[in-house]
Amino acid sequence: MEAKKVYYRLTGIRAFLFQVIFTVNAIYFVVEAGLNPLQLVLIGTIMELSIVLFEVPTGVIADHVSRKKSVIIGTILLGLAHLLEGAVPAFWGIASAYAVWGLGYTFLSGAEEAWIADEVEGKGLDKVFLKGSQIASIGKIAGIIASMIISMLFSVQAAILIAGGSFIILAVWLWFRMPEERFEKLEREESSQLRQLAGAIHKGYRTVKGHPVLAGMAGIALMWGLASEGFDRLWAAHFLEDIQLAGSSAVLWFGLINGIALLLNIGVVEWISRRLNGEGEQTYVRLLLLVNGALAASTLIFALSGELWLALASYWASFTLRGLNSPLYSIWLNQMLEPKGRATMLSLFGQLDAIGQIAGGPFVGWIAFSISIQAGLFATGLLTVPVLIFLCIAGRYASSRGVSKSSGQEGAG
């Protein structure tokens, strides 16, 4: 089968299966497994820690053995993780499942994109990724509908187990249908990958340290990580326990909440992406200031909301604004970086976000457990405020030229 067709089907089916699970995950965690706020956040922390620990070792498979095998292994592990999650409605079972999930994700991370890039030899890759993203969006919407139907006909647990088993079937299909004809194994270098990573991080740190704009952007990535994990794990618990959505209608409500949030995010990101074309740094700084100021406000309102209509409006606003952050920040960051060393710097900023999530999750979870879920969510809103400070710092030094060019002029001076 043609590689692009396999890629589109893989992207769409996986997005569909993930959404079947994620639509009802919160109900399963809170209602079926009875997890408290701290346990909810710790699950996310365990997953992120697993990703950070295994990101480099599993990269060896994709680079030195086979991209196809790496994708298949990752898909199998995701399936096993969700089967374990659905089979054991208890903290230890779910936590173990998400440790396995993190491992599985690292096998997929980068391998799938590298595989399709190899197979199409880089031709029309932007169009391939764009179409894949569009198919994934359709898969997510279909997944929400399927999750609601399965959960109402059978149970929330059944939806998770069916999707988990389907990941295994998907892996078997990939084994027979996924072509790999243009993969070239990398020769192992004398220095270990861990040593290379340490060197790259040190080099990235020196680059950031010497440039106020990048230093501000690094602070933004870290604070986003600190704020995001708590929100991701507690928003649903707020609806279930504080707004009292638990009950027979919970599945329908969560399908509606997720569906509208997804459609809003797709629409707003598409709208703004069409209007941004080669804008200068100051434009992105102003937009990010506006988005994150509104995000902090909407998150605080969501935390304090006791009425359903206010909780819905503020959650949808928060979800949509968070969805805008990623493309705006990515465009701005890529403008700042020269092609040489760009991958290293992007990896460094990604690690800062992950570190923030690992550090911020337990802190917010402890607040939610000790005081209330609303207090935990309020803390995530407050953690967004320093982003505005870092944006002001970065914006003060921002110019229309890249960092490397600026550094060259400073060095010449």
UniProtKB/TrEMBL annotation:
Subcellular localization, per the record?
A: Cell membrane
Predominant place of localization: membrane
**This protein is called what?**
MFS transporter
Identify the SUPFAM superfamilies for this entry: MFS general substrate transporter
Stated membrane topology is: Multi-pass membrane protein
- Does this entry carry the keyword Transmembrane helix? yes
The molecular function terms in GO held by this entry are: transmembrane transporter activity
Record-annotated Major facilitator superfamily (MFS) profile domain positions: 1-398
| Domain of life per record | Bacteria
Species of origin reads Bacillus infantis
Q: Sorted alphabetically, which keywords does the UniProt record give? A: Membrane, Transmembrane, Transmembrane helix, Transport
InterPro entries under this entry? MFS (IPR011701), MFS_DHA3_Transporter (IPR053160), MFS_dom (IPR020846), MFS_trans_sf (IPR036259)
GO cellular component terms, alphabetically, are: plasma membrane
Q: Where are the transmembrane segments?
A: 12-31, 37-58, 70-92, 156-176, 213-231, 251-272, 284-302, 308-325, 346-369, 375-398
